[in-house]
Every structure is written in structure tokens, then in C-alpha cells.
Amino acid sequence: MTLIVTLATCSLNQWALDFDGNLERIRKSIQLAKAAGATIRTGPELEITGYGCQDHFYESDTYRHAWEVLAELLQDEKCHGILLDIGMPVSHKGVHYNCRIVALDGRILLIRPKMHLANDGNYRELRWFSPWTQRRTLDEYWLPPVVQETTGQTKVPFGDAVVATLDTCVGIELCEELFTPRSPHIDMFLDGVEIVTNSSGSHHELRKLHRRIELIKEATLRNGGAYAYANQQGCDGDRLYYDGCALVSVNGEVVAQGSQFSLNDVEVVTATIDLDDIRSLRGSNSSRCMQAVQTPPYPRVEALISLSKPSLALSTPLRPTRPISPKYHSTAEEISLGPACWLWDYLRRSRMSGFLLPLSGGLDSCSTATIVDSMCRLVLLAIAEGNEQVIADAQRLCATPEDPLRLPQSPQDLAQCIFHTCYMGTANSGRETRQRAKDLAAQIGSYHVDLNMDSMVSAVVTLFTTITGKTPQYEANGGTTTENLALQNIQARLRMVLAYLFAQLLPWTRSQRGSLLVLGSSNVDECLRGYMTKYDCSSADINPIGGISKQDLRTFLAFYRDKYQLPLYDQFLEATPSAELVPFSATYVQSDEAEMGMTYDELSVFGRLRKVARCGPVAMFHKLYHEWGSGGSGLSALAPSVIASKVKRFFYYYSINRHKMTTLTPSYHAENYSPDDNRFDLRPFLYNAGWNWQFRKIDEAVDKLKPE
Ligand SMILES: Nc1ncnc2c1ncn2[C@@H]1O[C@H](COP(=O)(O)OP(=O)(O)OC[C@H]2O[C@@H]([n+]3cccc(C(=O)O)c3)[C@H](O)[C@@H]2O)[C@@H](O)[C@H]1O
Ligand SMILES: Nc1ncnc2c1ncn2[C@@H]1O[C@H](COP(=O)(O)OP(=O)(O)OP(=O)(O)O)[C@@H](O)[C@H]1O
Ligand SMILES: NC(=O)CC[C@H](N)C(=O)O
């Protein structure tokens, strides 16, 4: 007889330590799962506390409140009648674990601690938790009073076990366990487990989803079985955007997939599967059966529930969900959606009134502005779909004394309420950049200010002259490089001061309440090279593009131009990137790439080799010799000495400017070659920029490559 099971997994927009909000989102997901006919529900990793609590996982309050929230869920009868798999931290015998709680009808059946912790890149789970290393072993966990009173239980099994229901067997995996070479699901599936849940706290990185989906498909491809993946979604209080994409795979195929980027706080994804499909596939695979016989059994805890329904006996027959092709966004789409969703969460959760962006008419600040535009479009779509949370948040932001429940009527209308742009010109600013900034602001609908700040610059320079008796000059007027840089940096830095002043007072001038978040727009490449003034407009409150490369930003703007038919973007794409901080003439215009001594495309290559391929100067030279030199596939091979000088120049500038990364504005994490010193790329910031030993080795290699 066919046994049909409806599984529910979900993406929840949890927020670190927001226990009320997290509880309500979990509760809602359980109710939606039940309404969809599901008999088992899984949710994101550490969903009760939020994944990103970080050092709050040292605090006993975090554990105490997690139990209190769990007790509320257990005693809520609307959450009974379904097998629940809920995430929270648990302290056992003085050790902290990242756990899943399996519960049914108000009773806890099992606490399953994570066995393989995530500890690279942005992940630091070993800082707060220990892995449970006792394979297939159970201990007794004595419940805290708040749960004892609720469930009537005093102790429950704690450890590595699976859950036997009346008709099937369920295993549990937590996020990173899927990514390890010897994932627990392999042995669990071999031991007769038919459904594995995976609860994740997995954040977005451009082009990363493929890997995750391949691993999930692979999990059920060789062994047969069903795999239900849940993830957190949204900004839970940090630089990371968790990108949902709850998913169910059966026998190597995806049968259900949720959104990767969304403003919905609760998204439940269900799939109906036929257990017979799993059993018949397994029975026909002889080599798998032989391995299964040899697999040591897992301890089983019993759940007195039948997850399946005999499909033919139902008045409305349930049909297994058909396989689908997984959906992947292009990189440009990912940029238009991920940072936009993150900005919306940040804005509403910070309770600020909107954004202020110094808009220069260049590509970078144009990209930041475009991401805000994308956010406004997403908000309007969510309002049209009746998303109650988005409606409430938009009403708070757009309220007027006359209409406290005012809702924006268009993306431009929303931008007019919350988005402020400011062109801060000097004598060195070009007419074209000023006009482009104005045109872009009009297109997006931002409240735009176009000002000149020469009086401010000359006041500071005059003060300096009065005190020192010296007047710095631009190089073009006979000044030294130092004078030239100082005159540029003072313009750039005063823009930052002005930006914060306007962010604080612009709403007041418009009879609005509150103040604005200052947005930054340095991209990952210029940060890496240090081609920016420390504490200028790069020192903003948050930066949606700080983790995105110039190359990807160009692709993003071209995509946006085509998607919404906005020819104005051509002007930004065609313009030569320039800081416009020195006098220009008929024969000279400042250009980023000329001043940096390298192109943005080269910087992307250096950046990836430095961080992703973990290259020091010598390894980078070797790799680039194969890539760009005569051994490479490129048409115009570069001489070893040319490659050597490019590598040395990069490392020189990277190292003298590394200190700028310590004060980098918090940015949306998007790239695996991000130089973010605070969380992702932990390195010294005082280097011997001569790299004497390393550069000598490069010179020796170049000598060896010279023809005899
Ligand atoms: N090792 C170290 N540890 C800690 N701090 C250190 C330091 N070395 C210098 N510093 C500090 O950093 C300062 C130097 O940094 P900073 O003031 O930024 O100045 P700096 O890096 O010398 O110059 C700014 C760079 O950005 C370029 N730029 C300027 C303006 C705008 C743009 C643009 O794209 O819009 C680009 C400009 O061409 C130049 O390459 C020093 O005066 C000192 O205060
Ligand atoms: N004239 C200006 N008015 C307002 N903000 C400015 C101005 N010039 C620079 N800024 C701010 O300083 C940041 C850094 O300038 P930068 O020249 O590196 O970037 P950009 O002009 O946006 O892009 P690009 O590097 O492609 O020219 C800008 O993104 C912008 O936020
Ligand atoms: N929370 C986790 O275990 C996440 C780790 C995993 N490598 C990921 O990026 O999704």
C-alpha cells in the first residue's frame, strides 16, 4: 500500500534574542505546516534564540529564555498532532551544545546535539559550543523546572539517535553536518532512516546556492531517501543575510523549493512524498543493501505517531509532489535582491526613519542607490500581496500627521519618504556627475539635495594656513604629492561630516520624525587596494555594496537597466571611474584605475587569489605566471617581470592600507574574497610593506624564467 507523507520545512526571519518575535514566527510556521496537512515540521538552526546571538551564547539568560519559549510551544495545543523539530542551544553538564529538540504532543522525545560545528569564514560555532562526539550514544538530560512543569517529564534522551515513528524513521542533521565528508545522513540512511531533516543557519554569498543544492540532492541520490532543508532568512542583527531557500529533495531530485530572498517573515514549504518510492529504490540497489547490512544501528527513540496516510483511502487523494528544476538567480539578480532585503530588515529593526546616501554620480554610489530602489520595489510588491508585517513597517515609515496609516503608492513614493540623496560638489566636481546624480535621484524618487561645499573646504584650509603659515597646493599647481593627497582627503572627509549632519537634520527640515542611516558605497576592490580616504564617505553606518566587486556591480547595473528599461544607467556604465578631487583640465581628468596602478578587473583576480586561494606574494606570482604568462591560455602573454611587478604593487598597496579595514563600515557580506577585518578576514594591519623575503623570492623566480 502506498504510504504518503507530507513534510514541512520553513524559512523564518529570526532575530537574535528577539524571543517574542521568534516564538510567534515558529508558532505560525507550525500552524501553517499543520494547515497544509504536514505531519512533521522542521525549522532553522537555533531558531528560538536566532542563529546570530554570538557571544550571547555564553550567557545563561540565553539558555533560560530558550527553555521558556520552548515550554510555551509545548503547552500550545495548536502545536500538537505534528512531529516537531525545533532548534535551540542547550547546556548539558556545563557544556554548551547547538541542539534540535524533537517533540510530539507537548512532550520532548529527544535532544540531538550538533556533531560537526561550522567554524570557518564567518562561522565561529566552536567559540560557543562543543560538538557531541559520542556517536550513536545517548545520555540522560534532566529538564529545567519550567519544562518539567509543562511536560510532566523529568529527563529525556540526549545524544546521537534517530526517531522511529509508527511507520517510518526520521534522522536529524544540522547545517554543517551536510557539508562534511562523512555526513551523518549517510549512515542514518543506511540504517533505515527514510526522512532526514536539516536545520540551517546558512548565509548568502554570491553564487553559493549551487553548492548547497548539489549537496542536498547528492544526500538522497546515492542512498535514496527524503531530505528536508530549513534555513533562517533575513538580517538577524549582523552583516549576514540568511538566504532561506527551504527545500525538499527525494531520491536525488528536488521536489519543493522556497524563496531565497523574500520579505516574508514566515515561509513554509511542503512536499508530499511516497515512502514506497524510497523503499523500492533502496531494495533494488544491491551494493547499497550490502553496505546497509554492515552499518551499526542507531539508538531509536519512539514517536507514537504515523507520519503517513494511505493515499487511496483518503476522500481527497494526496499525490506525491512532482520533481522540479531548482531555481537559481543570476549573480546580478542576487545583488538586486539580497542586499535589498537586508536593508529593509535593517531599517525596520533599527527603527530609524530612512537612509541618506552621498550620491556622487559615479558607479558605486549609483549601485547603492539602485539597491535602495530595488528594496522599494520589493516593499511595494509585498504590500500588494497583503504582507501584514511589511504593511505595518511601511506605515510607520510613511505616516504623516494627517494620515498616520499612510501607505506608499509606488516605489518612488516610498523613496520620497525614506530615501535622501545628496550631491556634495566642489570646484573639482564635473558637470556630468552632478547631472547624473540629479537624474538618478529623480528616477528613483529620492529627496535630493544638490550642494556645494567649497566654503567648508576653504574654511578648513584657511584655518590650517592661519595656524601654520603654509598653504598646501595641488600637484597641478606645483604642490607635492603629500599636499595633493591632503587637499583631496579633506574634501572627502568633510563630505562624511556633512553626511551625518544632513542625516540627523533633513527629516526635521521636512517635518518628519527621527533621523537617517548614512549609507556607504565603497566596493570590495577599492577597500582591498585601500584606494579610499579613511573616515570619508566610506565611514557610513552600513554599506550594502562593501562586499561586492566592481565587476559584479557593473553586471548588476546592466541587468537592472535591461530589466526595468532604464537607459540612464548607460551613462554610469560608460563613465570613467573618478574621485573628482583634483582640478581637471582639457588634458587631465583624474581616473581611479590610472591612480591605483591596476584595473578593477585585475583587483578582482588579486582579491580572489589572496583570500580564496590563500596565496602569499610568491604563490600569487606562480599562479598568475600560469594564468597570464606564456604558459597561460591568454592570447597576449605577459612577461614574468611584468607579472612580478603587478603582484608586488598589489601587495605593497594592500599592506600599507590594511589598517583601513579595521574601521570599515559594516557591509553586507557577499563575497568570499571580502577583506572585512572585523569578522571574515582576520589579519594583522601593520605589515612590513617591503615584503623583502617574499619579493626577493619572486625576483629569483623571474631570473630563472629569463631565456639563457
Ligand atoms: N599603519 C597604519 N596604521 C594605522 N593608521 C595608519 C597607518 N598608516 C597610515 N595611517 C593613517 O591613515 C592615514 C592615511 O590614510 P588616508 O587619510 O585615507 O590617506 P591616503 O591613504 O594617504 O590617501 C587616500 C588614498 O585614497 C585615494 N582617494 C582619495 C580620495 C578619494 C578617493 C575616492 O575613491 O573617492 C580615493 C587617494 O588617491 C589615495 O590613494 C594617515 O594619515 C594615518 O592617519
Ligand atoms: N560629489 C560627491 N557628492 C556626494 N558624495 C560623493 C561625492 N564624491 C564622492 N562621494 C561619496 O564618496 C564615495 C567614494 O567616492 P568614489 O569616487 O570612490 O565612488 P563613486 O563616485 O560612487 O564611484 P566611482 O568610484 O565609480 O567613481 C562615493 O561613493 C560617494 O558616496
Ligand atoms: N550553520 C552552519 O553550520 C553553516 C555552515 C555551512 N558551511 C554553510 O555555509 O551553510
Automatic annotation (TrEMBL):
GO molecular function: ATP binding; glutaminase activity; NAD+ synthase (glutamine-hydrolyzing) activity
Protein name in UniProt: Glutamine-dependent NAD(+) synthetase
BP GO terms, sorted: NAD+ biosynthetic process
GO CC terms of this entry: cytoplasm
Pathway(s) this gene product operates in, as recorded in its UniProt entry: Cofactor biosynthesis; NAD(+) biosynthesis; NAD(+) from deamido-NAD(+) (L-Gln route): step 1/1
Similarity comment text for this entry: In the C-terminal section; belongs to the NAD synthetase family.
Pfam family, one: CN_hydrolase
EC number: 6.3.5.1
Membrane-spanning intervals of the chain: none
